[in-house]
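Reading group handout, session on sequence-to-structure problems. Before we discuss, look at one worked example. The prompt was deliberately terse, the way you'd type it at a terminal:

> structure EamA domain-containing protein

The input record follows.
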Amino acid sequence: MMTTSEWLNTVAQVGAGLVAVIVVYYVCQSIASADGLLFSTASNAERKKTTILDGVVDASQPKQRDYNTVLPIGSFLPYANVRQSVNRKGGAQFTYSFWLYVDNITWIHKNDTPCNIPTTTTEGLTFDPKHNPRLYTLFVKGDKRCYQYQLQDLDNTGNPLGSPVNRQGRYVMCPLIALGDPSDKEIWVYFNTLGKIDQCIKLKATPSLDSTLRRNISTLTEKQWTMYTFTFMDYIPMGGFDSMIVINSYINDVPYQTDQVPGALRCNDGELCVLPDGAPGANTLTASRLLMSTFDYYNYALSNNEVAARFSAGKPVVLKGYHAATIIVLSSIFFILGSITYAVLHRKRVLQDLRDVDVYILARIAFAALVCGFLSNILWISLLKAHPVYVVTALSATTPIVTIILAALVLSEPVTIIHVIGILFMAVGAFLCIKS
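And the output record:
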C-alpha cells in the first residue's frame, strides 16, 4: 500500500508536468503571435501574402470562420492582415486565391434560401426573385449579415441611374465571391464601388462546340480540385480617362476572364468571413460536398507567372477516413503501448513472472504518456495552425520525442533505448493514417 506522502508526491509530479506543458504552450503561442505582429508591422508597405486557410476545410462541419482585419490583438476573432494593398496604378490592388472542390454545383445551394422567395417587409417593400438570386457565398470581406434595403444606382457624377430596386442580402462586400444561381452554374463576384453598391461580374459558363469559345465552368470544376484566383486593380483617372477597375479571373493557372468596370473600389475594414452560409444544401439523391483549401490573400495583383507558380505547387491532399481527433487518439494509444512495454522490460529486465510487475508503475507511466501525448499533439496543431494532413509527419516525428521528455520529467524515470518501441508504435499509427 502506498502511503499518503507517496500519493502526494506522485500527484505533485504529475501536476508539475501538466503545468510545465501548459506554460510551454502559452509561451510558444505568445512568441508566434509577437513574431506575426512584428512581421505585419514591418512589411505593411511591402508585397505580402497572408494565409487565411492552411489545410482543407469542409463546409459541412459547423465552425465559425470569421477573421478580424483591424486589431492584431485584443479581439475575440483571429486576426488576418488583409487591410493594406500595394498601389502600383494609383489605386487599391489585391488578390484572393483559393482551392475549391464541389461535387455537385446544382444542389450546393440551400433549398430554404430566403432570397429565392418574394417577400414584403413591414415598410411595404416587395422583393422580386430575379433581383435576389440564390447564392452560396464562398467568402465575403465586409459584413456577412443580410439586410433589406432599397437600391439606387448612381453615375460617376452622383446622379440616379434608373429606378430603385428592392433588395435583400449582403451589401457591405469588397469583395464577395459566390456560387451563382444553380440554373447557370456561374461564379459571381460582387464588390462595392463609389457609384454602385452591388457591382457584379460573372465568370460565364457558356458551353460551345467551338473549343475556342468553350467556357463551361461547371464542366471544368465539378468533382475535382480547382484553383480560383481573382486580382483586383484600381486605376485612378489619368489624362482625361475615367477611373476603372480591372478584375482578372483565373481557373487553375489559366487566365479565364478579364473584366473592366467603371468607378473606384469602395474598400472596407470589415471582417473576412469564409463559408458564412454554412453547410451546403442537398436533395434526397445527391449529397453535396464543398471543400476549400489553401486560401491566401496578397496585398498586390499577382501576375500570370505568379499564378502559374502558385498552381504548380500542387493541389491539396485530403486525408480520407481519419480526422484530427482520430490521429490524436491513435498517437496516444500507440505510445501508451510503447510505454507499457518499456515499463515491463525496464523494471523486470526479463519477462519471467508478469504477476510481479508493479501495476502502479504501469498505470502511472500509461497515464503520463496519455496526457503528454495528447497535449503535445494539441500543441503542434495549435502552433502550426494547419490541418492535420499537413502536419502528420511532424506529429509522428516529434510527438514521441516530446512525450518521452515530458514523461521523464514528470516521472523522474530514466529513458532507455527500449523506449524506441514507443516510437515504432507511433510510426505504425502515422503510416495507417496516411494510407487510409
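Points for discussion. First: The chain has seven helices and 14 strands. Second: The chain has three domains: 49-317, 322-386, 388-435.
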